[in-house]
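Practice problem 4.
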């Protein structure tokens, strides 16, 4: 009797176990001490369980505060791992169809456990597209990867892009927290800030959209937002996650979506792009999009970084990204004791009816006198750059030697380079190898310029500015490098490439954004070997690994209505790792406030100066330099430089920012890893914080715990 009872109990337990397996909606994949990874039973989603916090991050929308309804296609999107955006290249109609996994009645799926994770195979039978996704548990992160070799179209439809886990970073308006996205310096959308409601979705092109660069835009067209980092994230319920686009970032986009009546959710996701869309030039009666016949053969991957409990601010996200760059990507801090940046503007052409007139406001001999004058004021160790030094002056691109005659000689340039080096400064030549003006020589307007996929040459409305293809860009750089080495040039600053990557669809000269990025990195590496010091105009993180200085980094975001506030995410990541500058102080309408921004966000003080009055440049195309004569600014340059080099700010120059906070209206607190705390008060009255008094329109540096 006892044996029968034991057997009956075992059978009952086995039956209960089978029933549990059948009703469980997840398939265990992998785990470690921190995380556990699960695949949804329908193979159309994943869950990542953080064992330390108990938080479950799901690719399906699972906000417990959501009280609205999701129906129809939106509901299926919200529960699908990805959306495949496709077009019919055979018909060439230019429309896009959203192929949602759970919306495809002919969907066939399968999965295979691989080392550290799982590979899920999808066959969207209705659209005849196959795609595979690899999901891997790696330490405290999860890597989601789409290998291009496993994408196949076996019908009329071809893939345009993939929306990867569009509802992983999503929350309703009732939730405490925010979305982070890399607009400019960084921006956040707070869920409870109703100003974002019903605002238009924005697609941010990582590292810029070449077609929307200001060099080729018409006067009334708007430039696309600056995107310097391939990251986005979410903070909700005291927990935060950061997503980093690893592979394919140079061709990816980031989509920011605010809540509407139809879908009351705010969400951000990565869009993996395989084909760009262009206006069909054959149709003039209406606007029709056409898509590339040839897909970009790009492997894409997205790394999910889960922050520890209590680390849920944008500062914590930025620190996590900095740690990722330093520890996982092999970055090393690259700083020196040159704490001030100065550009010397030299020459620009003034267009005439028959002949151009060269307007020169600084010669090489005068540049040497400016350096001596700065040294007498105590400003000696400078990161200096020359602008408008090349033949034809500023704007006569691509830049090349010899030196413009009205500026000086090759011998004068070599002497100036030697002088600055002896003083402990660096002197770089600012050069643009990407843009080409119509009057420039040494390039072919047929073979060396960028073509779009619609067979049109990329140029501006006046057709006097062109963009060089990556191979032509590298050729012009190589020619310059050989000549510059003979003159002892010890620094080079690259224009254009730091805020926008190029591509080219010209037959026989096809280049993707990835090809362009590889070319830019090669140029930076060869410049470091040839000249030593390398700087980049713009702040693209992809190039910062190989540069010493990033210039003209934005202070804030683009000002979209759905943005609650801009945040110095980029600056937190970079401070103590790379030097960076913003707007020249002499071009600011309020230098006192500009200096406070430098202090708050860790910028290097930056000025652009001349020897003569800038009135000489009034009728040139370089008209933004309205006040720059060095005699008018040298005292203020010296005073600010002193504060950053020998004053209180010296202690934070090479330190890393750990926390940036707005603690009151016009009052900010910045905490560094060496214990220093900087308070910045933009207000017109003294302010109190942590038992300290911060004077009006001033800053205070203290050590943690000091009163």
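Answer key:
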């Amino acid at each position: 009797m006892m044996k029968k009872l034991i057997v009956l109990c075992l059978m009952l337990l086995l039956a209960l176990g089978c029933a549990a397996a059948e009703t469980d909606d997840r398939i265990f994949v992998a785990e470690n001490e921190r995380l556990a990874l699960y695949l949804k039973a329908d193979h159309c989603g994943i869950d990542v369980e953080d064992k330390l916090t108990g938080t479950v991050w799901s690719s399906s929308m699972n906000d417990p505060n959501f009280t609205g309804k999701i129906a129809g296609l939106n509901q299926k999107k919200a529960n699908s791992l990805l959306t495949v955006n496709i077009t019919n290249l055979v018909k060439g109609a230019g429309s896009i169809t959203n192929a949602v996994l759970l919306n495809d009645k002919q969907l066939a799926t399968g999965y295979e456990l691989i080392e550290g994770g799982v590979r899920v195979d999808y066959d969207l039978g209705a659209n005849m597209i196959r795609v595979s996704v690899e999901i891997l548990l790696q330490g405290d992160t999860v890597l989601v990867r789409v290998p291009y070799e496993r994408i196949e179209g076996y019908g009329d439809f071809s893939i345009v892009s993939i929306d990867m886990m569009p509802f992983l970073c999503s929350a309703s308006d009732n939730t405490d927290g925010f979305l982070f996205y890399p607009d400019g310096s960084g921006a956040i959308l707070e869920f409870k800030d109703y100003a974002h409601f019903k605002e238009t979705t924005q697609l941010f092109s990582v590292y810029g959209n070449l077609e929307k660069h200001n060099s080729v835009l018409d006067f009334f067209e708007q430039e696309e937002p600056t995107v310097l980092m391939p990251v986005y994230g979410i903070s909700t319920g005291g927990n935060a996650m950061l997503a980093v686009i690893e592979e394919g970032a140079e061709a990816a986009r980031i989509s920011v979506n605010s809540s509407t009546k139809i879908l009351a959710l705010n969400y951000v996701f990565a869009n993996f792009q395989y084909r760009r869309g262009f206006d069909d030039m054959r149709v003039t009666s209406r606007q029709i999009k056409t898509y590339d016949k040839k897909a970009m053969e790009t492997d894409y991957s997205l790394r999910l970084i889960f922050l520890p409990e209590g680390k849920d601010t944008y500062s914590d996200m930025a620190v996590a990204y900095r740690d990722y760059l330093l520890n996982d990507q092999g970055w090393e801090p690259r700083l020196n004791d040159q704490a001030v940046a100065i550009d010397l503007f030299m020459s620009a052409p003034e267009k005439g009816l028959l002949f151009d007139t060269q307007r020169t406001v600084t010669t090489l001999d005068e540049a040497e006198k400016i350096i001596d004058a700065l040294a007498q004021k105590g400003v000696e160790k400078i990161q200096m750059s020359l602008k408008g030094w090349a033949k034809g002056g500023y704007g006569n691109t691509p830049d090349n030697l010899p030196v413009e005659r009205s500026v000086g000689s090759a011998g004068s340039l070599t002497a100036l380079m030697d002088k600055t080096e002896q003083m402990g400064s660096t002197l770089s030549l600012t050069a643009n190898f990407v843009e080409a003006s119509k009057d420039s020589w040494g390039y072919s307007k047929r073979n060396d310029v960028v073509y779009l996929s619609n067979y049109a040459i990329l140029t501006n409305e006046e057709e006097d500015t062109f963009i060089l293809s990556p191979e032509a860009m590298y050729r012009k750089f190589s020619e310059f490098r050989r000549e510059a080495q003979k003159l002892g040039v010890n620094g080079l600053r690259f224009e254009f490439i730091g805020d926008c990557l190029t591509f080219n669809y010209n037959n026989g000269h096809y280049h993707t954004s990835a090809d362009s990025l590889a070319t830019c990195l090669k140029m930076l590496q060869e410049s470091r070997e040839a000249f030593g010091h390398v700087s980049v105009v713009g702040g693209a993180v992809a190039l910062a690994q190989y540069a010493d200085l990033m210039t003209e980094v934005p202070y804030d975001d683009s000002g979209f209505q759905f943005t609650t506030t801009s945040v110095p995410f980029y600056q937190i990541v970079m401070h103590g790792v790379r030097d960076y500058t913003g707007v020249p102080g002499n071009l600011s309408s309020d230098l006192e406030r500009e200096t406070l921004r430098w202090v708050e966000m860790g910028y290097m003080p930056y000025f652009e100066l001349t020897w003569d009055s800038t009135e000489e440049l009034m009728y040139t195309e370089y008209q933004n330099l309205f006040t720059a004569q060095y005699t008018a600014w040298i005292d203020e340059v010296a005073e600010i430089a002193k504060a950053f080099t020998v004053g209180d700010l010296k202690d934070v120059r090479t330190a890393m920012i750990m926390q940036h906070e707005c603690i009151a209206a016009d009052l900010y607190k910045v905490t560094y890893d060496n214990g220093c705390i900087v308070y910045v008060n933009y207000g017109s009255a003294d302010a109190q914080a942590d038992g300290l008094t911060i004077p009006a329109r001033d800053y205070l540096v203290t050590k943690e715990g000091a009163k």
